[in-house]
Amino acid sequence: MATRIISPKPLVFDHAAQFFTVSDSRFRKLVDGWLEKGLIQEWKGLLVELEAGGHCVPVPYTTKRYVGTNGMRPLMDSIICQSKLVNIVRPCWVSKLEPFNGTWRLTERDEYHGQFDAIVIAHNVSPTYFFLDEEFDYFLKELNCHGKCANRLLSSSGLPLLTKQMKTLELSSIWALLAAFDDPLPIPTIGAFGSFDGAFVKGVNSLSWMGNNTSKLFPLESGKPHCWTFFSTAAYGKQNKVPQENIPNATAERVANEMLEGVESALGLSKGSLEKPFYTRVQLWGAALPTNTPAVACIFDPRGRAGICGDWLLGSSVEAAALSGMALAHHMADYFKTGGTRSDEFAIGLNSTFQAIAGHDIGQFPGLESEKQVKPQACYISETTLFDFA
């Protein structure tokens, strides 16, 4: 759940999860709390399926969609700030994870970061690190890692079953293009519906989603620049994959141009006729959507006191991330209540078989399957995991 804010305008872009839906009562309790606090709002913008050439049909609004009031990232920041149980250490890149007398020692290069009773790897997100306050009788260290980070840490950890499961996970790559325009895009209107706010794009290799952040986040404000987020297809991401930490300038420029050409194709415009954006930025989500999953809520190795959670375990959505985090938190709490005995009873997901899933592009969101008549397989990018520590 990532939001980029560019000053001084400001320009605001959700450049990962675009919105989320609710289907589970446990997640509904969280969402209702966020609504009461004003952290989120219902998004009633018009969504369409857009075919190359500008042909589009509306997606019926039968399932409520939600967005962060000021973007998706501020929602996460607000939740973390309100919690008294979580201490965040930033920046912190754990380079060594080693077992020591039944606990875990964590090191960042040569700097010692403490000794912990348990660790959780929340894959696949940007590296931020959490641990519980000292008022608790045990410590938990959560490592939010992308694939390379997680596999590197686990490979020397003495956790062969967790390592095997992490290495089995396969992920697609997706390019994100953030573009700001002075004027509205020439979007086709749909009768009384008007122009769309977001579109699932079909038939364009370089484009799978386009969403208007300005109309989504600031629907009642006029005169703002039009900030759009565009996502490529997984096929395009694979064809143009580079190290995401060091994208060559030439690649960034080419991808931006090709994705804008994809926008023209989707809207039925002639090549080169689209207004040139005054701001662009590309980002490669090298570990975007899962292509396989063990279909378990969480993974836990009680002998190693180590667990894994993440949206990819249940379907790659914001709701899936929350449910996975809750499942592991409750499972570990139950384990610690036993005093660490009966370890074998608490092993979960260590030998679960991965199954291939379809839908590696943006556009298959939970709760929309009945409206769009598609089977929900993979959903939108989510970048963080929520925990119910209570």
UniProtKB/TrEMBL annotation:
InterPro entries: FAD/NAD-bd_sf (IPR036188). It comes from the Eukaryota. This is Uncharacterized protein. It comes from Zingiber officinale.
